[in-house]
Design goal:
The structure is a homodimer. By secondary structure, chain A is an all-alpha fold. Chain A contains 14 helices and 2 strands.
């Protein structure tokens, strides 16, 4: 398979669905919808929705993979990811002006509107999730709500951002760095894989294997993010390069240097592939995604 | 029945459950949990959880009303209400220093931590909701997720706050005021009643009647809020009195004067009672709650 073609196709599917689920609005809430759409449709890579869909494909009958019922859930993941970026960029948080090559939400819409755009996207994600595939068993859909809300809540993604803020500019241990990564980035990426698995009817062992894949992928993703922040230009990244070092944020390269960090990223990918070694060729997209994540340039 | 005793008992039930669901935490997230608990356990009246429980009682077998399975859902409503207060009070929003007689969240914990406490509470609400009463049918629990996420999302509560911010200090029509009220306050109050109804197994007509009750109660609640802001002292309210007029926020009294406003509040309560006229004595708490809401002093 050609991963670039796969990514292109799946991204188009997700982008079209996002457009359908949150279209331009008239009336008094037009500006609010515009603020949400501004960040949601700002050219993200759609890694999380695609991981969700690929996990489902690894379990569904080949050829007949009906991904349509999973699209609301896949889009919910992107809404949550986007909300987290909008809030992280706020003046009171990381105070970033640039994201995906465009001015950040609060720069364009103002701080209050940006906070509310984030709040709106988070709630909207659960709307989408609750509406996901009425053809799927209610128990599976409820399980998706449960695992996703846990992954992004106070002891998941939000907790990771809390630790990141609290430790900024301080000497931290590698254990703390690992905890921040695993909560702030890893939890949602793992949950993206799990959401696809659960909605595709994964059994207990399949779910456990795919969750293991998700954890390793999440780790690889964050390590590569750290590397890119060191090695890329602002133009390549679409956000301020070198900003981690400037803020004295702890990163993998700061702990281990670039070479060892790159090695660890590859180890994580190997771990991800190992976790799903028992899956057949329907898991090929997941395998290619793992390799893509470690080799990506932005 | 004595509504004061009822409120006292239900509030104690909700407070104990909140304490159980979000206990003091050790470890790296201790401060984050403390920030969430600070606002969550700040002596709220628990109107929304109590409306949820009372709606369930109106449908469940008398005497045997097993409210225990509904407590996570009831607490989820309070988490969502609290998150909305924490975010509304932020410097970029209403910039309030005082809430429920205490310094607001961002005054105590800082702006970033307050944004994240709100984000955490919103996500945590959906965790609670997804965990609600595993003895209840999955379809009913999913419906609760669906109606609550809609009520609090971009076209519900968050949308109401957007309109409120956008129109602050401007001349607005009564229609706009009514829309702001109905989204910002009404939607969550209505959803509180609906959540209790759905989880107690309401049929279509029962749900529709209870939703009608909820809409009228929500209206009454907001009208009375406007009145209290005009008539009370800061000490009585636990937040800045007269702040609406100071900010030139549109309110019912500003449109109609105090007497006519009071009359409209009573009409809304009458409408609420009318909506549930067909219910038996198990709906007595709902009836008393309607009367309480219009006569409350804070």
């Amino acid at each position: 398979m050609d991963i670039k073609v796969y990514l292109h196709q799946k991204r188009a599917l997700v982008d079209a669905a996002l457009e359908r689920f949150l279209p331009v609005a008239d009336g008094p809430l037009a500006r609010h919808v515009e603020a949400m759409r501004y960040s949601l449709l700002a050219g993200g890579k759609r890694v999380r929705p695609i991981l969700c869909l690929a996990a489902a494909e690894a379990l569904l009958p080949e050829g007949a993979a009906q991904l349509e019922p999973l699209l609301p859930a896949a889009c919910a993941l992107e809404c949550i990811h986007t909300y987290s970026l909008v809030h992280d960029d706020l003046p009171a948080m990381d105070n970033d002006d640039l994201r995906r090559g465009k001015p950040t939400n609060h720069v364009v819409f103002g701080e209050a509107a940006a906070i509310l755009a984030g709040d709106g996207l988070l709630s909207f994600a659960f709307e989408l999730l609750a509406d996901t595939g009425s053809s799927l068993p209610a128990e599976a859909r409820l399980q998706a709500v449960r695992l996703l809300s846990r992954a992004v809540g106070p002891f998941g993604m939000v907790g990771g951002q809390v630790l990141d803020m609290e430790n900024e500019g301080q000497e931290i241990s590698f254990d703390t760095l690992r905890r921040i990564h695993s909560l702030k980035t890893g939890a949602l990426i793992t949950a993206s894989v799990e959401t696809g698995a659960v909605l595709a009817g994964a059994g207990r062992e399949e779910l456990s294997a795919l969750a293991g894949y998700g954890r390793q992928i999440g780790l690889a993703f964050q390590i590569v993010d750290d590397l890119l922040n060191v090695e890329s230009t602002t133009e390549q990244l679409g956000k301020a390069a070198g900003s981690d070092a400037q803020r004295r944020k702890a990163t993998y390269p700061a702990f281990f240097g670039v070479e060892e960090t790159r090695k660890r990223a590859h180890e994580a990918v190997a771990g991800a592939l190992e976790a799903i070694a028992g899956f057949d060729q329907r898991a090929e997209p997941l395998r290619e995604l793992a390799r893509y994540i470690v080799n990506r340039k932005r």
